[in-house]
Amino acid sequence: MSKTRKYSQDTILTQLGRDPDDYYGLMNPPIVQASTIKYKDLESYETKKGQKFTYANIGHPLSHHFETAMAELEGGYRAVSSSTGLAPITASLLAFLKSGDHLLMCDSIYPPTRIVCEKLLKKFGVEIEYYDPLIGASIKDLIKDNTAVIYLESPGSATFEVQDVPAITEVAKDAGVITIMDNTWASGLLFKPLAHGVNISVCAATKYIGGHADVNLGYAVADTEENYKRLKAAHVDLGHCPGSEDLYLALRGLRTMKMRLEHCAKSALKVAQFLQTRPEVRRVYHVALPEHTSHEIWKRDFTGANGLLSFVLEDAPKPAVAGFMDALELFPIGSSWGGYMSLLQPQIEINWRKAVKWQEEGTLIRLQIGLEDPDDLITDLGQAFEKFGDMK
Ligand SMILES: Cc1ncc(COP(=O)(O)O)c(C=O)c1O
Predict the structure, then answer these.
(1) For the chain, percent of residues with pLDDT exceeding 70
(2) Which residue of 207, 244, 320, 352 could cross-link 391, Cys pair, CB 3.0 to 4.6 Å?
(3) Is the per-residue pLDDT at 2 higher than 60?
């Protein structure tokens, strides 16, 4: 966006990553199907000079538009894009870690990120230590001579702990340690990791950016040219390449993302408040509830919430728990979030936590609140609780 005035986020989202003059005046850059890209001559083949693109899995017009948009939205130097949200997580960890390094990993991470640590990074000799997401500046005590990366995810998966990012990045900078943060919850919009000192911000565009449960896409934005080069090298080596249709849909999704997020956040708060009134619910996790552990820090650092919330359903025999879930009409069980429809997902991986063990009795359930009328969602939950009551 090469406009001169300073615009609000709503306006910026309408402008990012498109330039009609490049495409006969078309408002949206079209889907391009590409692998081979012609070189101008031998010199451009050998030096890459004057070649905007060289091979489509390293970059093509649509990935360029999407990456430019995301680098600008996150306030970074440049971005890479990949075919899933997990791919830039793996690429950024591999870019900044080597055998013998120590990685400080947030304990409330997205479970597949933990699998990357346990199955992949450990195999290559990376030492992994999980830390309490609420550790703040005390992370200083965990830094060792070989600590190379501190990885953050904020709010965390399942229970939404918000990390004190400025406190952690200050310590990391003093120690010369790289920080990588999963910013998917904020979708590049509600929180700006790089402005808070993070080096690499990663995000699954599969969620709110795509917004319609039909896109697989991720990106990572680097703060500096040097960090971008390391990130891009790992990204290319891993052969990460997003699909053109997904890039197109993500650019389209960006235009309406803020409105969708606002609607979902408002509905999620209403549903969370309803859940708080139910005797079958032991605890509700949603950052906009004043009772949430991280409510104050979320208010300090974030400009809004999304549609995710979790709750602990009281301990009950398995058939009653299954009966509750299966009785819901508007909450199918499914992975992912950020789409237009509500979803339910049991959070069984909560028991994987190491730094702060999960102590609650009962079933932890995550709800993704979509664009339905929240009163319909509440009615649906209400009737499922009645069935649960009859079965427990
Ligand atoms: C916090 C977080 N990060 C990353 C991902 C990975 O995204 P994808 O499913 O596109 O690989 C997810 C997916 O659920 C997620 O919740």
Answers:
(1) 99
(2) 320
(3) no
